[in-house]
Amino acid sequence: MESRRDVFQAIADPTRRAILTLLAVQALTPGAIADNFKSSRQTISKHIRILAECELLKPEQNGREIYYHINANKMTEVAGFIEPFRKLWDDRFNKLETIMKTYKTKK
After folding, report:
1. Of 17, 37, 52, 74, whose CA is between 20 and 30 Å from 5?
2. In this predicted model, what pLDDT tens digit does every residue of 78-95 receive, in sequence order?
């Protein structure tokens, strides 16, 4: 089986983004993660595996349990890629806001 290492392919799935959102608050076991979804545990386990293969999640053994944490370093890489686009859109929206304010004052 081919390993999935493309971070953006991994975060394209809404369930995987929801898992990342859950784990942003606290580390959870696979079972605790699965309890938050209507999907089967096997399906959630597959999503967790993909996120771990992309290094977005880090497993940590604690006794018999495995807890998954967000890998902040990898998330920083994703944010770094997206940042220029955010700035571009912020600039565009700021310009639009200025135009709208000017338009309102002229009326």
Report:
1. 37
2. 888 889 998 899 999 999
* CATH architecture of structural domain 7-70: Orthogonal Bundle (1.10)
Question: Which DSSP string corresponds to 17-60?
Answer: HHHHHHHHH--B-HHHHHTTSSS-HHHHHHHHHHHHHTTSEEEE
DSSP annotation of 68 reads E
Distance, in Å, from the CA atom of 42 to the CA atom of 48, rounded to the nearest integer, reads 10
Q: Any idea where the domains of the chain sit in the sequence?
A: 7-70
